[in-house]
Design brief:
The chain contains 16 helices and 17 strands. The chain is an alpha+beta fold and 426 residues long. The longest helix has 20 residues, at 21-40.
Length: 426
C-alpha cells in the first residue's frame, strides 16, 4: 500500500476487481474468443445501458435476484438499478422494435453485471457475462445452436469434453411432475428456486426447505426421485413417451449428435435454473471435477416479454461469466502468456534527435505498425531491455553517427541482428 493512501481507496470496493495491463491482456483475449465463437455462428453484437429501471427486475416477484439488486433512487426520484443480468434489457430492446426486427434474432453481448451477494471463488459482486440469445424461434433447433456456440468457445479455449460437462434438462419435466401434484403458481416458482440449490445444499436440507413450503413428504419423495434421473429412457418410463419434456429432450440430444457435441452433453433433471422465466430447455456447464460453480447457464424463456407488458415471443439464450472460466483455465495452466501489443520500439540516443524520433514513430504508426516511442532520455542498455520486456519485434534506433549519414539502425529482437535503413524504408 502506498504511504498515505487509505485502505478503502487502495483496495477498491469489496467484490469488485481492478484490471491492470497484464490482466486486461488476458481479459481481451477471453473476450476475443467470445466474439469469435458468436460470430462463427452468425450472431450480431448489441449493448444496453448498465443502469435500468428497478421495475424491469422486480416485475416477477420471487426470484432470488431481486434481493441482490444494486438499486437506489436517482436525483429525479426514480427507482433504478445496476443490471444484475442482461436478458431483461434485451427483452426491452426486442419489445421496442416488435414486428420490425427480422427473425430469428441472433444477438450477443458481453455486459458487466452487478449483484450484491456473498463473494466466493469464481463469484464477485461484479462480473462480465457473455450473453448469446436467439429470439423468434420456438423450435428446439435454436437451443441446439446455443449449445454448439458454447462448445465452440470451450474448444477454442483449449478445453475438451474430459474437462467440461454440459448438463441439460427441460423445465417441462418439473412442470409435469409438480402439476400432477397440484403445485402451481408462486409455489411452483418457489420450488424451482429450492431445487436449483440441489448441487449446493445437502438433500436433507432440500427436503426441509420443500416441507416448509407446504409440500407433503410423499410429494417430496416423488419430486426428488424425478430430479435424480440421468437417462432419457428412465425419464420416459417415469413421465411417458408422449411427455412434451421427453420429446423435446430426445430431439435436443439427437441434434447435439448432428453437431458433433454429444460427448459434452449429459441429461440431468436436477438442472432447473432458479429464475422463474424459464419455460423449456435449461442447461448448465460445469467442470468435470465438480470443484467450481457453474461456468455457464441458460435455457428457453418464451414468456418473458409478457411480464414486461408486451406480446410474447419465443426466445432462448445463455449467460457465460468471465470469472469461473478463468479460474478453470488458470487451474489447468492453459492461460496464454500474453505480451504487450508492440511491434516497434523507437529510441533516440541523443535528445537533439527527439523530433526525428517522433517523426519516424508517427510514420510507422501511419503504416499500421504498433509503436512504443521512448519518451524519456534513456541509455541504450535500458532501451534494449525495454524492447525485450515488451516483446517487440524491432528496436528502431536513431543514433548520431548513423543519422548523420541519413540512416537509422534497426535491431531484430529475436535474432539480435542489426541492420541500417533509410528512414523512409522502414
Amino acid at each position: 500500500m502506498h504511504r498515505g493512501v487509505p485502505a478503502s481507496v487502495s483496495s477498491g470496493v469489496r467484490g469488485t476487481r481492478d484490471f491492470y495491463p497484464e490482466d486486461m491482456r488476458v481479459r481481451s483475449w477471453l473476450f476475443g474468443k467470445f466474439h469469435d465463437a458468436a460470430k462463427s455462428h452468425g450472431f450480431e453484437e448489441y449493448d444496453a445501458p448498465v443502469l435500468e429501471t428497478e421495475e424491469i427486475y422486480t416485475r416477477k416477484a420471487g426470484d432470488e435476484i431481486v434481493s441482490q439488486l444494486y438499486s437506489f433512487e436517482d436525483k429525479g426520484g426514480r427507482r433504478v438499478s445496476l443490471r444484475p443480468e442482461m436478458t431483461p434489457s434485451l427483452a426491452r430492446m426486442v419489445m421496442a422494435r416488435s414486428g420490425t426486427l427480422p427473425t430469428p434474432i441472433k444477438w450477443y453481448s458481453i455486459p458487466q453485471c452487478w449483484r450484491y451477494e456473498r463473494t466466493q471463488r469464481g463469484r464477485g459482486r461484479e462480473h462480465y457475462q457473455w450473453n448469446v440469445d436467439i429470439w423468434g424461434m420456438s423450435d428446439i433447433r435454436a437451443d441446439a445452436e446455443l449449445l454448439s456456440v458454447m462448445v465452440h468457445l470451450l474448444r477454442s479455449l483449449g478445453l475438451s469434453e474430459e474437462d467440461i460437462v454440459v448438463r441439460v434438462s427441460n423445465r417441462k419435466v418439473l412442470e409435469q411432475v409438480l402439476g400432477d401434484l397440484g403445485i402451481e403458481g408462486d409455489e411452483f416458482t418457489e420450488t424451482c428456486v429450492i431445487i436449483d440449490k440441489m448441487d449446493k445444499v445437502p438433500e436433507e436440507k432440500i427436503k426441509e426447505m420443500l416441507k416448509e413450503t407446504g409440500i407433503d413428504e410423499e410429494a417430496i419423495r416423488r419430486i426428488l426421485s424425478i430430479m435424480g434421473v440421468k437417462e432419457l429412457g428412465a425419464l420416459a418410463s417415469e413421465l411417458g413417451e408422449g411427455s412434451p419434456a421427453v420429446q423435446e429432450l430426445t430431439s435436443l440430444l439427437t441434434l447435439c449428435d448432428s453437431y458433433g457435441i454429444r460427448g459434452w452433453i449429459e441429461l440431468d433433471t436436477s438442472v432447473v435454473r432458479g429464475l422463474s422465466y424459464y419455460t423449456g430447455t435449461v442447461f448448465e456447464a460445469h467442470d468435470r471435477a465438480g470443484e467450481l460453480r457453474a461456468i455457464c447457464g441458460g435455457g428457453r424463456y418464451d414468456r418473458l416479454i409478457g411480464t414486461l407488458g408486451g406480446k410474447d415471443m419465443p426466445a432462448t439464450g445463455f449467460g457465460f461469466g468471465d470469472m469461473v472460466i478463468m479460474e478453470l483455465l488458470r487451474e489447468k495452466g492453459i492461460v496464454p502468456d500474453l505480451g504487450h501489443d508492440v511491434q516497434d520500439v523507437v529510441f533516440c540516443l541523443d535528445e537533439a534527435n527527439r523530433g526525428d524520433a517522433m517523426a519516424i514513430a508517427g510514420r510507422l504508426r501511419q503504416t499500421g505498425r504498433l509503436v512504443d516511442l521512448v519518451l524519456e532520455e534513456k541509455r541504450m542498455k535500458w532501451a534494449l531491455r525495454h524492447a525485450d520486456r515488451v516483446a517487440a519485434e524491432r528496436l528502431v534506433m536513431i543514433l548520431p553517427e548513423e543519422w548523420s549519414r541519413g540512416k537509422v539502425k534497426v535491431r531484430d529482437i529475436s535474432s539480435g541482428t542489426e541492420t541500417e535503413h533509410e528512414p523512409g524504408s522502414l
